[in-house]
Amino acid sequence: MEYKEYKTFDQINKDLEIYKIEKDLAYYRFKKELDETKESLEIKNLLGDTPKKAMGFLNMLSGPLKSAALTFLFKKIF
């Protein structure tokens, strides 16, 4: 570890200010990364567009095909 000699209190205060700013910057970077991680783990981001695409496909079907597709889908899910 490197030791530093200070001649005045102003030098000490200047270094303390720099360390505080570096600490705050590291904290905000950590907080931002934590928020991004939380957002990426939300259900909507984990599933993506799959449910939306499936519902779009089912809306194109009609009558017995639609009921058969829904039955098949629910059996697969549950």
Write the layout of secondary structure elements.
Blueprint lengths: L8 H32 L2 H5 L2 H11 L3 H14 L1
Number of helices: 4
Radius of gyration: 28 Å
- As for the number of domains, it is 2
| Count of individual beta strands | 0
For this structure, the quaternary state is single chain
Low-confidence stretches: none
Taking the sheet with the most strands, its summary is: none
Inertia-based shape:
rod-shaped
Strand content: under 5%
H/E topology pattern: HHHH
Spatial separation of the terminal alpha carbons: 60 Å
Mean pLDDT: 83
Binned, the helix content reads over 70%
Look at the helices and sheets and give the structural class.
mainly alpha
Describe the structure.
With 78 residues, the chain is mainly alpha-helical. It has two domains: 7-47; 48-78. It is 79% helix and 0% strand. It is built from four helices and no strands. It is rod-shaped, with a radius of gyration of 28 Å. The N and C termini lie far apart (60 Å).
What is this structure, in a nutshell?
Helices cover 79% and strands 0% of the residues. It contains four helices and no strands.
Descriptive tags:
78 residues, mainly alpha, 2 domains
